[in-house]
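Example record used in the benchmark description.
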Amino acid sequence: MALREEILEVSKDILIQDGFSKMSMRRIARRANVTATSIYLYFENKDDLLLALIEESINDLKSALQEVVVPGKDFIQQLEDMAKAYIRFALEHPKEYEIIYMVRPEEMPKYPREKFNEVRSAYELLAGIISRGKEQNLIEVDDPLISAYTIWAQIHGVVSVIINKRLDTRIQREKFTEQAVDHIIKGFIIQKTPA
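Model output (structure tokens):
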């Protein structure tokens, strides 16, 4: 593993276990068995390191979602594929997922304005699918972006229950995620009555 990747991996662990306030360059260096000076070859400071972690995690999530976007596919199937890809990414990459969504805002450095477009682009993939559904008269929504956030919030809740080990032990995880996606999508879609 290259040194930069090793520094990022160690930083993820420290960040998730102890929070940003306890994530020092010296502590990262000790855990990675390198000198603190060598970290500064790749990252200007602790804020720069956290922003790199967030940016890489967001890009990985976005790539996972883009892989399932297939133009021309059935609208409901597109929503389901997107929801399942999101859950799959979160459960297969829990550290990255936590870094994107669970780092407390007060611990984060100011996020550069140009980076917000990267964050938004993941939601805009879903909003784009919803917009096309609206254009094809398959659903009735006022604002596709609000609808995308609403779906995301519900899926985020499903993922959080699993990652935080709050899922009832009597419930099988795969069945839970399958039914949750089914309920979220069905609940979102308004069935049009024939004229």
